[in-house]
Design brief:
The structure is a homodimer. Chain A is mainly α. Chain A has one domain: Tetracycline Repressor, domain 2 (Orthogonal Bundle). In chain A, 63% of the residues lie in helices and 0% in strands. Chain A contains nine helices and no strands. In chain A, helix 5 packs parallel to helix 8 and helix 5 runs antiparallel to helix 9. The longest helix of chain A is centred in the C-terminal third of the chain and has 27 residues. Chain A starts with 17 loop residues before the first helix and ends in a 7-residue tail after the last helix. At the A-B interface, helix 1, helix 7, helix 8 and helix 9 of A face helix 1, helix 7, helix 8 and helix 9 of B. The structure holds a DNA duplex.
Chain lengths: 206, 206
DNA sequence: CACGATATGGAACGATCGATAAATAATATC
DNA sequence: GATATTATTTATCGATCGTTCCATATCGTG
């Protein structure tokens, strides 16, 4: 996250706010996916001319990469906050994660489900690199969850016979499924009841 | 499923096997999704000229609709067989369903995951009808699962405080998540351990 | 104020998209 | 075998795809 100040030489200043443009691009890619979102769509939605978008992000793939980071910095950070909260027990952390998934995946103001899961579910071979970008994010997020569970296991918060890697994969799988459910119109209450059932029979110690 | 024999009038016979063409089209749409699969791709893969495909299926959407039915008649039927097997207990039926999901989603000879979940996860507004076709299939499959659970509940196979609708949505959510996991490279053993953990939540009577 | 540097708006690029027209080939029926 | 009907081949359609060129606009610096 260290960013060299990029000492400006001169020239006309950028006429649009990068983050504001990315926010609008996030919505488009989130809703329609990578392939079904055209540069013309992005120009229409953001009000920024194509040449300016290319000057700022190189190409469509570069714009999408910036969109991924923007989504991660805004939505994902909030979703995964309980995992990084040292005040929460392991169970509370996972409970908070699933509750936030239920609410954010069904949030009326944004497209349903999770951007990371649906924005590039299936793409052409030419866009394989795009699919890989999101896959890496998904795998990294899962690894973060598993690490949290491993810390909990090390502190005796899980039953001795519990494999944190399997439990983490299970929790992550439920979240991914909840995203599909939300896309298909599941309400927040339905998602919460799914989360509750996943948390049922939590392998607590003792 | 009733099909009028479509009494042929005359004319040159079709030069290709419809099901064979659909099988190849299934693979393409399964792997790349609806938007990222072009008619040129389909022509190259099937060896059938574009005009012939249009004569047989009207347009790309019509071909995709036929592909959905072909997938349902081949892969989905096998996946959901345990649900319709009267010899199995409710638990065994769900267990069989998840086991088949684990193996078929990671089957080396086919694209990873489930066609129904990933072939049109996010599409353009112009293709909204396509997305709806698959969503209806997903919802119908979930309803089928819930009906099976309701029958089990009626026969006392579930704990009295269990809501079959919630349990069915949970099982279905895990399956949808398993599809994403398979897409991201999960092995059959990893998927099976996820399924096992989901079944650990099983609300048996007594 | 002049100059270099960067951003913008508008027009346009070649490629590919889904889809079709027209001519020809191959069958069933009479 | 003549005719009606359907399928195939080939070429091509207008629209849209991602991308770029070019002239102009607007800044920091000398």
């Amino acid at each position: 996250m260290t960013e060299t100040k990029a000492r400006r030489r001169a020239g006309r200043p950028r006429g649009f706010d990068t983050d504001a443009v990315l926010d609008k691009a996030v919505r488009l890619f989130w809703q329609r996916g990578y392939e079904a979102t055209s540069m013309a769509d992005l120009v229409a939605e953001t009000g920024v001319a194509a040449a300016s978008l290319y000057a700022a992000f190189d190409n469509k793939a570069g714009l999408f990469a910036a969109v991924i980071e923007r989504y991660a910095a805004t939505f994902s950070v909030h979703l995964y906050a309980p995992i990084n909260d040292p005040a929460l027990s392991t169970y509370e952390a996972v409970e908070g994660l699933l509750e936030r998934a239920a609410s954010s995946f069904s949030e009326p103001g944004t497209p349903a489900g999770c951007f990371m899961y649906s924005a590039a579910a299936a793409v052409s071979p030419a866009s394989a690199a795009i699919e890989c970008l999101l896959r890496d994010k998904r795998i990294a997020a899962e690894a973060l969850l598993i690490e949290r569970l491993q810390r909990g296991a090390a502190q005796g918060e899980l039953a001795a016979n519990t494999d944190p890697a399997v439990l983490g994969k299970f929790i992550n799988t439920v979240m991914e499924g909840m995203s599909v459910q939300a896309r298909d119109g599941a309400t927040i209450n339905e998602l919460l009841s799914i989360a509750t059932m996943a948390l049922d029979r939590w392998p607590a110690a003792i």
